[in-house]
Amino acid sequence: MKLALTLATLSALAGPVVMGVAPARGAMLVTDPHVYPVTSNHRVRLEFPVGELKVLATDEPHVRFDLRVRCRRWSDERCAEMADRLILDSDDTGGTLNLKLHKFPHWNNHGMTVIGTLSVPRTLAVDIEMGVGELTISGIEGDLDVQLGVGEADIRALRSRAGHVTVDTGIGDADIHGGGSGTRSRGFIGSHAVWDEGQGRASVRLHVGVGDASVRLE
Predict the structure, then answer these.
(1) pTM for the structure as a whole
(2) Is 81 within 8 Å of 144 (Cβ atoms)?
């Protein structure tokens, strides 16, 4: 599905003037939310190429995906043209909702930053495959399987729901916070951390190729 992007107003996005400095000029393109019905046994999988991604838990009975595209300058028509080419594919097969964002430029992106928010019923299992960027996940109580090529990833999970957590990086730091003495870690160039003393049923697996990865048990 080709994404229909509309221009948001500058006053709502640029923020206030601070210390007499005007906010940076730029444009934010937004899409209407994409909503997908799911059952309590569904699994959700998202492929997200480059940018900033948040995965949030919700009490709603559906999955929602919101997308914004930030262009560095108002006048950069090339950025808007590339944003308009983005396509979000969806497929619901065998109890798995598959979402894939593609047509992102591989080379010069003309100052384009893609910002996604995936809202998922909190008890569902979630798989994330992301290329480059910043990833945060909060509140998901089902299984998590997360792969990030380059960047930083931070997961906040309920300790009472988790049974096993593994975090590893090819180059970078891998940390598990809140696991206490049950956390084991090792590393030289890359890092690996494990916590397996949970009483919950959920499995959390996080891998980052190059960058830092952390899971916070709360």
Answers:
(1) 0.85
(2) no
Predicted pLDDT of residue 72: 73
At 2-49, the pLDDT tens digits run 565 554 533 333 333 233 333 345 678 888 899 999 999 999 999 999
Dihedral, 66, 158, 124, 67 alpha carbons, nearest 10 = 10
Cβ neighbours of residue 97 under 8 Å, at least 6 residues apart?
36, 38, 42, 43, 44, 45, 63, 90, 91
In the predicted model, what is the mean pLDDT of residues 178-192?
A: 75
- Please tell me the distance from the alpha carbon of residue 132 to that of residue 192, in angstroms, as a whole number: 20
pLDDT at 34: 94
CB 44 within 8 A of CB 58: no
Per-residue CA distances from 56 to 72, 103, 123, 126, 136 (Å): 26, 24, 11, 11, 8
Bridge partners of 122, per DSSP, are none
Structure tokens at 71: 């262009």
Please write down the HEC assignment for all residues of 159-217.
CCCEEEEEEEEEECCEEEECCHHHEEEEECCCEEEEECCCCCCEEEEEEEEEEEEEEEE
CA 167/CA 161 separation, integer angstroms: 17
Cα 34 from chain centre? 16
Mean pLDDT of the chain: 84
For residue 80, give the 3-state DSSP assignment: helix
pLDDT digits (tens, 9 = 90+) for 145-156: 999 999 999 999
User: What type of residue is 15?
Assistant: G
